[in-house]
Task: inverse folding
């Protein structure tokens, strides 16, 4: 196979060329987009590794011309300055994948192999998305993965399940997907299921006919019908009552809604994005959530990491919130000690709690310098048994209740939890095995052996 590496960093070019050689491929290097276009016009390539920031024309601008010259060659975009707009534009312009620097050799080799095996089909040439002001921010590897997944799914009609703790920004993800989707001209209808009256959830979702129940003096369209031609965002989907789950599944499968008290279904077409802080798989095992509805909602999953797992993003977010406040007509600033304090807090309320803390500090500082004493006091940690501790206890009780008693309980426990641990850490590090090994506190060779 013949690879083209387009990057102005000599170290990156050397490493990728060495990797390509070790994998049995030939590699050509270009230091600019213009040089790459000239090379692609003169010889065939099987894969193009393309940096975003280049001298002269940037990589994203050159992608269309490169794809038109050699549509059969997949393009892997590389950048150290990724954000949501970059990810969306890269995927929409036909990129096979999107990786952020620094990446280790194993990660680059994995992407390279997948690209050469799949040999991405020619792009349909969707129009580029305008760069709107971004609300979902982050430079950490975990957030780069979120941006990439949003970019991958936005242009499709697939149902999306957004998971993450309260305050991580799940609605912002839904809004970003809708904004960059084919149904962006239609409405985005947020539906907070936890806030709806439990006895009226069905009526709120599906609407009702006149006289359907006491007080229903007029027919009313439901929230799902209002989302026709757009997107229905089901927030706190784990709180949908079981009886309503059956009707919701039918509405999604048949693309029609039947108001309460009516027998005539109404055709409707909307995209569904669901969000929850609950573990729906655990809810399924407990009998509180239907497995068939879960599979219908979770065609594509996006997990938002908690803020404590991406502390490097805190300065970016805190300074953004501070600029928006502009308290007392002045622009405040954090002293280093205050920013360090922000980065070391647990942030159980995630980005929402950080925003409130910045506002609190700015008000106390009255537009001046923000010091650690201006930050709100830390909330006391709960003394209750943690969810993890409770889950382990339940797992053990189930095993110890079995007959005969297991003789390899420790190994069974490792087999149950280690794959999830490794997969989650790799997701957190953007599949960077070096960083994952450091985070786990094990040697890289040990991690490779465990992954097989």
Result:
């Amino acid at each position: 196979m013949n690879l083209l590496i387009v990057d102005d960093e000599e170290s990156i070019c050397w490493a990728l060329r060495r990797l390509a050689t070790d994998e049995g491929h030939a590699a050509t290097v270009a230091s600019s987009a213009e040089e790459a276009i000239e090379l692609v016009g003169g010889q065939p390539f099987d894969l193009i590794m393309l940096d975003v920031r280049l001298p002269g024309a940037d990589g994203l601008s050159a992608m269309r011309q490169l794809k038109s010259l050699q549509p059969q060659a997949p393009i892997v975009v590389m950048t150290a300055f990724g954000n949501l707009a970059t990810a969306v534009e890269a995927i929409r312009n036909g990129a096979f994948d999107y990786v952020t620097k620094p990446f280790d050799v194993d990660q680059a080799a994995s992407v390279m192999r997948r690209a050469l095996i799949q040999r991405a089909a020619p792009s349909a040439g969707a129009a580029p998305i305008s760069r709107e002001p971004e609300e979902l921010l982050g430079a950490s590897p975990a957030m780069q993965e979120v941006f990439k997944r949003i970019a991958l799914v936005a242009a499709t009609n697939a149902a999306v399940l957004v998971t993450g703790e309260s305050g991580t920004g799940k609605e912002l993800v839904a809004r970003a997907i809708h904004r960059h989707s084919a149904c962006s001209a239609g409405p985005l209808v947020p539906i907070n299921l936890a806030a709806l009256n439990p006895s009226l959830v069905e009526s709120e979702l599906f609407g009702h006919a006149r006289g359907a129940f006491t007080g229903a003096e007029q027919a009313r369209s439901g929230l799902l019908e209002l989302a026709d031609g757009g997107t229905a965002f089901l927030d706190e989907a784990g709180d949908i009552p079981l009886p309503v789950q059956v009707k919701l599944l039918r509405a999604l499968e048949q693309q029609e809604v039947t108001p309460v008290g009516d027998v005539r279904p109404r055709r409707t077409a909307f995209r569904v994005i669901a969000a929850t802080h609950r573990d729906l798989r655990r809810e399924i095992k407990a009998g509180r959530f239907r497995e068939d509805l879960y599979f219908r909602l979770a065609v594509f999953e996006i997990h938002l990491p908690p803020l404590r797992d991406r502390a490097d993003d805190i300065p970016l977010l805190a300074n953004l919130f501070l600029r928006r406040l502009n308290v007392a007509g002045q622009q405040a600033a954090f002293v280093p000690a205050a920013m360090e304090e922000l980065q070391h807090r647990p942030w159980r309320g995630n980005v929402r709690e950080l925003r409130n803390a910045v506002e609190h500090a700015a008000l106390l500082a009255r537009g001046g310098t923000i010091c650690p004493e201006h930050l709100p006091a830390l909330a006391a940690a709960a003394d209750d048994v943690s969810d993890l501790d409770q889950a382990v206890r339940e797992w053990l009780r189930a095993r110890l209740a079995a007959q005969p008693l297991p003789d390899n309980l420790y190994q069974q426990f490792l087999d149950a939890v280690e794959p999830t641990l490794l997969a989650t850490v790799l997701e957190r590090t953007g599949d960077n095995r070096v960083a994952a090994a450091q985070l786990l506190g094990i040697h890289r060779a040990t991690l490779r052996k465990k992954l097989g």
In short: Confidence is low (pLDDT under 50) at residues 120-134. The longest helix spans residues 409-428.
